[in-house]
Design a protein that fits this description.
This protein is mostly helical. The chain is 63% helix and 0% strand. The longest helix is centred in the C-terminal third of the chain and has 17 residues. InterPro entries: ARM-type_fold, DNA_alkylation.
Length: 231
């Protein structure tokens, strides 16, 4: 842990730390080192190559919780690097999820191996969304957004998410983010939810706002979506 911590501080950018801390209100600034994501991903690649010969690196993945934000992100990026099969990716992700303590780490990683069994992954996202833990729920939603809104889209998910009622900003923001992308990618299946006002008001309006901000929706459609906003 100390060796990896030293490597992270060697990559420190204090101006970036101050900037990033403002994006994470409520997160302790002293727990942010200030390492840019490309540098973290590069370090993860280097460590993954050395893991077989250096048990200290493997130990880093078991020494939870981590202290620093960048340690959490490095952990996430290492999962992506070393989890080449579905079962390993899933196991390592589920071991890590209870220790995620911020939205940025939560949204930062989706192992490529997940695509090898999307049916099992779909069912896992449903389990994660029933968790009592904020970021486990959010991870399930974000995984749906990233992997299940194109060819693997299942319209039932629109109704499943509508049944989540949690007084938690980071969960509700993820739901709104999902619906905004659903309006972009699966408009015909999604717009009806907004026409009949199925969603909680805040999620309804935030989803429309995010969709309207997208360059991938034409002006006529944006004008119609604006008409669906709730007062």
């Amino acid at each position: 842990m100390k060796q990896i911590e030293e490597q992270l501080f060697a990559l420190q950018d204090l101006k970036y730390r101050d900037f990033h801390a403002r994006l994470m209100p409520g997160y302790e600034k002293e727990n942010i080192i200030g390492v840019r994501t490309p540098a973290l991903r590069k370090l993860a690649k280097e460590l993954a190559k050395k893991m077989a010969a250096d048990q200290k690196i493997a130990a880093f993945l078991t020494e939870l919780p981590h202290k620093y934000y960048e340690e959490n992100n490095l952990h996430a990026f290492l999962i992506e690097q070393i989890a080449k099969d579905f079962d390993t990716a899933l196991s390592m992700t589920e071991e890590f999820l209870p220790y995620i303590d911020n939205w940025a780490t939560c949204d930062s990683f989706t192992p490529k191996a997940f695509k090898k069994d999307l049916n099992r992954l779909y069912n896992k996202t449903l389990e994660w969304m029933k968790s009592a833990d904020t970021y486990t729920v959010r991870y399930g939603i974000v995984t749906q957004l990233q992997l299940f809104l194109d060819d693997e889209f299942r319209p039932e998910m629109l109704e499943i998410l509508a049944q989540i009622h949690r007084d938690d900003y980071y969960i509700n923001m993820a739901i709104a983010w999902y619906y905004s992308f659903a309006l972009i990618k699966q408009y015909d299946s999604t717009v009806g939810l907004f026409e009949v006002q199925t969603l909680d008001k805040w999620i309804h309006n935030k989803s429309l706002q995010k969709a309207i901000e997208s360059y991938r929706i034409d002006k006529e459609t944006k004008d119609y979506l604006r008409s669906l906003k709730r007062k």
